[in-house]
Amino acid sequence: MATNSNSLPLLLDLNDETKEEQRAFQLQILLGTHPNVLEIGVEEGVKLLDRLKASMVHWVENNDDARQWINQIDSLKEQAVKPRTIVGVVGNTGAGKSSIINAILDCERLVPTNCMRSCTVRGNLSFHFPF
Description:
Helix content is 47%, strand content 0%. The chain is mainly α. The longest helix has 22 residues, at 35-56. The two termini are 42 Å apart.
């Protein structure tokens, strides 16, 4: 593994044009502000809340404080739910709707495309959520 001038390990050996982007990415990772790091933190926090709640369940009947804590845990867990975003793509036949979806999702053949004729997709695409 290579290192840069600041002695940080480089994740990949990249050309000069992308090294600044790579340094910014590494800084986000080190500071814990990269979206992936934050999402992992939320997932771990939810697991911890589940363990806390499981350990307090038998106290709920006789203890108002335990009942209040469990309500607060449930409230925190509701805040950790990932929002669902629905996107519609419309346009003329052959305008490149499928191509732009494939490009945005970084999947070359997720939605069929054909440069010689139009391709119709009737259905829904769903990531991380059942449709």
